[in-house]
Design goal:
heterotrimer; A alpha+beta (203); B mainly alpha (166); C mainly alpha (348); A: 203 residues; alpha+beta; Alpha-Beta Plaits; three-stranded antiparallel β-sheet; two-stranded antiparallel sheet; 27% helix; disordered C terminus; C: 348 residues; mainly alpha; 13 helices; 2 strands; globular
Amino acid sequence: MQLTNRSKVVVKKEMTFIERMYLPAIFSGMFITFKHLFKKSATIKYPEQTREFSKIYRGQHVLKRDEKGAERCTACGLCAVACPAEAITMTAAERKPGEEALYREEKYAATYEINMLRCIFCGDCEEACPKEAIFLTDRKVDSFYTRKEFIYGKSILVEGLESDKRVDVSVRETKAVEEFKKQKEFAHNETYDKNKKKTVAGH
Amino acid sequence: MITTYLFYLLSFLAIMFALMVVFSKNPIHSVLYLVLAFFTIAGHYVLLNAQFLAAVHIIVYAGAIMVLFLFVIMLLNLNKETEPHKSIWLKASAAVASGSLLVVLVGSLKGAASIPSAKTFDASIGLIENLGQTLFNDFLLPFEVSSILLLSAMVGAVMLGKKSIK
Amino acid sequence: MTLDFLIYKIILVLIVFSITLLVATYSTYAERKIAAFLQDRIGPDRAGPFGILQPLADAVKMFMKEEIIPNVSNKALFVLGPGICMLTACMTGVIIPWGKSINIGGTDYPLQIADVNIGILYLFGVLSLGVYGIMIGGWASNNKYSLLGAIRASSQMISYEVAMGISIIALVMTTGTLSTGEIAAQQHGWHWNVLIQPLGCLIFIICAFAETNRAPFDLPECETELVGGYHTEYSSMKLGLFLFAEYINMFISSAVIATFYFGGYNMPLIGRWVHDPNVLAILGFVFLFMKIVGFIFFFMWVRWTLPRFRYDQLMNLGWKILIPLSILNLVLTGAWMMRHEIINYFVK
C-alpha cells in the first residue's frame, strides 16, 4: 500500500566514481542545512509565549456551581463508573436543612477526589455527568514532588464562588447542556422544592 | 652573555631530563621526560641559529616518534607492576656496555681542538636556504640514498602489515 | 633590542592573546546559535539581549562546578593535560600575520608577533605537540574510555599530519618561502594561493578539520561510543580548558587557512580607493578577520551537517585517499614549476 509519494525504492548497486567521491552528496547536504538557516524557527519562547491550545483541549477538571453558587454535583457516581482509568472516587452525603445555598440537590458529594496521575483526560466523566457538573478545562495540571499531591480533592476541583473565580467552560458546553438549562424544574433547588416535588415522587 | 647562561641552563635541563628518563619507574613518565629532553636539545639548536633543525627535530621526534612511543606504551598498558625483574647479570652487562660507549664518546671527542671556535662559526649555516644548498649540492647522493632507505623501510612495513601475500 | 621594541611586542602579544580568547569565547556562543539556526531553533537567548552574555554564564557555571580528580588517576599529569592543550592552542597565533605594518612616527610596526623564517615549520611543530595534552589527559584519567579517546586522537593526528604536511610542501614550492608573513604578502590582489593550489587547499582544509578534532572527525570525543572521550573524567574548568582549546584551535586554523590560501589580510581592488598605509593595514586586519569568521562559520556549518566518520573510514580517508592525493598534488606542482625545462628537454 502506498501512503505517500515520498517513498524511494532502495537499489543496492555499485556506486559510480562521482558518488564514491561523496563530494556532491556532501555539498547537497550542506546546501540543505544552509537553506534551513533562513527558515522560520519553530520555537515558542515558553513563559512569554504560550502555544495556542486546541479549542477542545482537555485539561484539569472543574466541578461547576450553578448560577446561584450551589454545587451541581449530586454524587451519583456515574463519572466514576464511566472513568476508564478509575481515577475518580467520591462519598455521598445528605444535604442538611439550611445548606440549600451550598448544594443544589438533596444529595451531594462530601468528598470528591480525582487522581491526576491516573486520569487520562479522556473526557468520559463530563460525558457521563447527568447534572453537567464536571467539565474538563484548558488549565494544565501542576507538577508536584509527591504522589499524594496529585490527588485533587474538592478544595481544588470545585470552582470559586465569586464571579471572577468562576471557570468558563462555555466551549465545553454541548447542546445537551443547553437543553439541560432550559428545563426550569432543574434551575434551582428552591423552585424544584416548591413545584416539582410531587411530580418527582409520582414517577 | 644571555646565550651562555641559556646554554648552561639548557645543558643542565637536558642532562637532568635524560637521567629522569632512565630513573623513572613508569614508562609513560620516561617517554614524557624524553620529550622534554628533546625540547632542550631543540633549544640548543636554536642557540646555534639552526631554527630549521630545531623545528624539524620537534616535529619529527617530539611530534611524531614520541607520540607513537606513547601510543604503544599506552596500548600495552605497561606500568610499575608489570615491569619484569632483571637479574644482576643483566644490570652489570648493561653498565659495562654503556660505560664502554661513554669511553668511546669521550675518546672521539678528545680531539675537540679541531672543532671550529665560535669566532669562525658561520651564524647563517643553519638557516634553511644554506641547508638546502648544502643538502642538494654537496650531499645530493647521501640524501637520495637515505630517501631510498626510508622507502625500502616503508615497503617492508607494508609487507609485514599485509595479512596474506598473494 | 630597545625598550620601544619590547613594549610594542608586549602590546601586540596581549592584543592577539585577548582577541584569540574573545573569539574563542564567542565561538561557543556562535556554535550554539548556528546549530540552532540550522535546525530551525532559536538557541540561547536568555542571558542578555539575544543571549549575548551566554559565554559569561557558561564560564561562571564552569568555575562553580565541583573540581573532581579521580582517586586512581595520576594527579600531576591529570592537571597537566588541559594545560598543555590550552598552551599549544594559544602558541600558534604568534606567526599569523594579522595585517601589514602600521607606521607610527616614522617607524614601521608589523602586525605580526614573530615573522620567523620557518613559520610553517613552527606551526607544524606546535600543532604536533597539541596531541600531548589530549594523550596525557586521557591516559592520566585511568579510564578506558579516556584512554581510547586519547589513542584515537593520537593516531588521527599522526595520520592527518602527513597529508597536511605534503599539501603544505606543494604550497611552499610555489611560494618559495617558509615565512608566513611573506606568504601573506605574496597574495596581493587576486594572487590567492587557492587559485594556484585548489587541490592542496581542499586537502589542507580537510586535514585542519581532523587536526582540530572537529566533526566529522570528532572521534576522540564521540559521545555515542566513548562517553566523552579523553575528557570523560574531567570536570569544572579543566573540562572547560579542554573544550576552550578546541575553539581556539578552530580560530587559529581558520586564520591559518585564510593566510595560506585565501589571501590573508589582502583584499583585491581595495588599493584603488584607499592609499593611506595605516588605514590599509587596519582594513587588512578587518578583511582577515572577516575571512576567519567565515571559516569559523564553515567549520560549524560542516559540524551540523555531516555525520561522524567510522574509525576505519577515517583511516582509509587519511592514508589511502588524502596522502596519495597530496603526493599527486606535489608531483603536479613540481611538474608545473619545471614545465619550461621539461618542454625544452623534449623539444631538443
